[in-house]
Amino acid sequence: xxxxxxxxxxxxxxxxxxxRKTYSKFRKFxxxxxxxxxxxxxxxxxxxxxxxxxxxxxxxxxxxxxxGAVTVIVLTEKQYESRQILINCxxxxxxxxxxxPQLTLSF
Length: 107
Prior knowledge:
flat; four-stranded antiparallel β-sheet; alpha+beta
């Protein structure tokens, strides 16, 4: 068994009320299908095999919004774990790092 990860990145229009509703519906589909948010508009889920990846890819196709772009990348878990998260915290005049508006946890 080869554990894999499906990464979904999407850019959907949100200018009108209907577009925001479509965005919300797609996001809720991802969450209900076992994806978790990596960043805004980037979600991932663990897969147990390539066959599982194909099943989830077909499920994704069936729930695609009518407008916008959705990119799907399937990685091995080892490839996913080798990603690097780079953070430039900046420095205040007093030398204390500025963590920015987002809380980041490291393991």
